[in-house]
Design goal:
Structural class: alpha/beta
Number of helices: 12
Order of helices and strands: HEEHEHEHEHEEEEHEHEHEEHEHHH
Helix content: 25-40%
Radius of gyration: 24 Å
Oligomer: single chain
Bound molecules: adenosine-5'-diphosphate, magnesium ion
Number of domains: 2
Strand content: 15-25%
Number of strands: 14
Shape: elongated
CATH superfamily of the largest domain: P-loop containing nucleotide triphosphate hydrolases
CATH topology of the largest domain: Rossmann fold
CATH class of the largest domain: Alpha Beta
CATH architecture of the largest domain: 3-Layer(aba) Sandwich
Length: 385
């Protein structure tokens, strides 16, 4: 063949160095994202690029930019981009590099001897009452005498501070963040939210590594003190945050919130099924908005029925362990009002039907107790990040 000589690896590396990671905005070659470059005799190039997280939303952009840059090199007859995902080690190396070598702080709740029970509250979709459930469980557990913290990890829809009536910003002491303390019913609940770090009502547009960094900070730089329970209000769905939480806190346990509606139940199931990949324990399912109690004492099932039990049954089958329906919380005006006023219904209207149901769930959680007994050993999630 009288064709051009195949391009050299150095030329190809130079071409790849012009491709930036769209989020970190640094050359992919510097970030250790180029795992391999192979050239065939005919000038066909195969580039293996490692993404920082699986299902990275930027993967199409990266593929396109790499194809374009390498395709422009003289002698290249074809480009084939293979995508992989960084290993835990590679990712922590990258984080270290981005931090300029400063060591990452330890997350106290991730220590094998941590006595704090961490519950991540998940849902398939938004608006099912995940945050309402989280703040009420926090308030109810605090009333049971437990030391409670809440992380509002719903980066796009943060609402926990408002629901707990927290208006003061966190205090910064050196490199430590002191969380504001809510006092629902006079008992303290420590709260931190992404909402406290963005001015006004600005939307948060972080993704991937930035989200991971934010969560890492919430958990490591915030001074939580000794907590019995930490509740995390996750964003709806099975996105980056859910995976990040599983990675940063492998022993965190999932609580799934759903409405009785079948469609909602199906998406809730997917949110719960993530536990299969992350090896998180599933504590149970909470059905919210189960019915409306009418003045005559009858129940109107506005959103249908059976969703919570269906999710619990289906998750029990798929993980092969009992996932109980922890409770059914009725529709209740006092719950909504309590959220709007920053006074959770369990303390604001403790005798209302919703408060009674939520307290019942909190008691079940409190009974599970504190400490390592019966706790599954922390297993590193198999899911590669
Ligand atoms: N059981 C309930 N009864 C009445 N209103 C509820 C109930 N659960 C949630 N709400 C209301 O529904 C809206 C969505 O709830 P929220 O907790 O913000 O959901 P999510 O966090 O899942 O998006 C809020 O206005 C909340 O006050
Ligand atoms: Mg919410």
């Amino acid at each position: 063949m009288g064709g051009m000589p195949a391009p050299s690896t150095a030329t190809l590396q130079a071409a790849l160095a012009t491709v930036n990671d769209p989020e970190i905005r640094k050359p992919i070659t510097e970030l250790g994202m180029v795992e391999a470059v192979d050239v065939s005799d005919t000038g066909h190039v195969r580039v293996t690029v490692l993404l920082t997280v699986p299902g990275c939303p930027m993967k199409d952009t990266i593929t396109r930019d790499v194809t374009r840059a390498v395709g422009a090199v003289e002698g290249v007859t074809g480009v084939d981009v293979q995508l992989g995902v960084m290993s835990d080690e590679q990712r922590s190396g990258l984080r270290q590099q981005l931090r300029g070598g400063a060591p990452e702080k330890e997350i106290p709740f991730a220590r094998p001897d941590s006595l704090t029970t961490v519950y991540a509250v998940a849902s398939g979709k938004g608006g099912v009452g995940k945050s309402s459930v989280t703040v009420n469980l926090a308030a109810a557990l605090a009333q049971e005498g437990l030391r409670v913290g809440v992380v509002d990890a719903d980066i796009y829809g943060f609402s926990v501070p408002r629901m707990l009536g927290v208006t003061q910003p966190p205090t910064q002491v050196d490199d430590m963040i002191l969380p504001p303390v809510a006092e629902p019913g006079g008992v303290p609940v420590k709260v931190i939210s992404i909402g406290m770090f963005v001015p006004g009502n600005q939307p948060v547009v972080w993704r991937g590594p930035m989200l991971h960094r934010a969560m890492q900070q919430f958990l490591a730089d915030v001074y939580w003190g000794d907590l019995d329970v930490l509740l995390l209000d996750l964003p709806p769905g099975t996105g980056d945050i859910a995976i990040t939480v599983a990675q940063l806190l492998p022993s965190s346990e999932l609580i799934v919130v759903t409405t009785p509606q079948q469609a909602a139940a199906e998406v809730a199931e997917r949110a719960g099924a993530i536990a299969l990949q992350t090896h998180q324990r599933l504590v149970g399912v909470i059905e919210n908005m189960s019915w409306l109690e009418l003045p005559d004492g009858s129940r109107q099932e506005i959103f249908g029925s059976g969703g919570g039990q269906a999710v619990a049954d289906s998750l029990s089958r798929s993980i092969g362990a009992d996932v109980p329906l922890l409770g059914q919380v009725p529709l209740d005006v006092t719950l909504r009002e309590g959220g709007d006023q920053g006074r959770p219904v369990v303390v604001g209207s403790p005798d209302s039907p919703a408060a009674t149901a939520l307290r019942g769930i909190a008691r079940q959680l409190a009974r599970r107790g504190r400490g390592l007994a019966g706790r599954k050993l922390a297993i590193t999630p198999t899911l590669s990040r």
